[in-house]
Predict the 3D structure of the following.
Amino acid sequence: MFSWRISKYNPLYRDKTGAYKKDEWTSFYDIGKIFDGKELTYDTYIATENAYVEAVVSFMDSTKITSLTVKSLEKHSKDIQFTCSDTHHHNEMEDLYKKINNGIVLEIQDIVFLCRLILRDHLWCKLENNPLMFIHFGYDYYMYIGSTNKCESATRSVEKTGLFVEKFESPYYTVD
């Protein structure tokens, strides 16, 4: 299995232990706050979120996977609560949030909205198609993808969006 960590964090800013040393935003809820002298705007956030979603689609395409199973689902509340600025794909995400449960198999169009829900801290889960592929999200806007395919075209595509792809084992990976 090949495995990668995908993030918006430039590896040049890691110390010898791998800790990231630059002050950057880590959540949807950081919109409006100042990082490295610049305010995180909604548009900047959405551009980054879109890059993560595109990364998922690229890796799924590269692996020729069209669906993934939801595992280890953690909903943070019974109903989803959107903020005033949280309007991007609001209806689709709300509908998915209501129907999602452990073991549900999602097609790519719903996986896109699920990734947005995870990135916006509304829920957490693992996405898997064992033994071919997994997608896991970690804290602070880290994403882990594993595949039986080398996914060279996907890694190149993701790097073009400004995200960083590093060979890395998912801390959430377990063999069933």
